[in-house]
Amino acid sequence: MSADSQAPFRREMTAEFDPGAVSETEFEKRRGVNRVEVRSGFLSVHVSGFDAGSDRAMAVLTALAEAGVSLDFLKLTSGGLSFLAPDAAESAIRRALEGIQAEHKVRPGLSVVLVHAVNMRDEEGLIARIVSETIATGAEIDHLGDMHDRVLMVVSAEDAEAIRARLEPEGA
User: How far is CA 76 from CA 20, 72, 145, 151, in A?
Assistant: First the structure.
């Protein structure tokens, strides 16, 4: 085939074809924060007065399981354990823990703020910037966790919207 043969990409052969506006599909989300989500209606519970590895820890967890309480963010501490649960479970939690005479404190009115970003752990300093911006709102972070595409923070419900407003990308 010579250069003068019917080459399909020559301008003269395609000039009459007008594909119109082509809309592109975005296959990858942009780097950085792309969405902030707030989930409200949580409380934290700290149960103290025993070693985390003791039989008492198992008794606490068994009592909560028998009460049908779903635990999130369970932390075993040197003096007990703590966890997050739905606000609606407060009375069941109190009954279960008082039933086994476990020393405990309940803190209602918490929210989970999820900050979504693609390949978060690969973006140098992104998690630090998110935490720094959150602290700059005056919020106290009760719990912090991360995954490959999001950071989650447990904060008071009053602080959650201020954090969302500060971190939400423009146009989101």
Answer: 61, 12, 15, 21
Encode pLDDT of 24-76 as tens digits.
556 566 677 999 999 999 999 999 998 777 899 999 999 999 999 999 999 98
- 108: buried, middle or exposed (CB in 10 Å: 19+, 13-18, 0-12)? middle
pTM of the full predicted structure? 0.75
- Is 93 within 8 Å of 106 (Cβ atoms)? yes
**C-alpha neighbours within 13 Å on the C-beta side of residue 167:** 35
Report the C-alpha gap between 12 and 98 in whole angstroms.
85
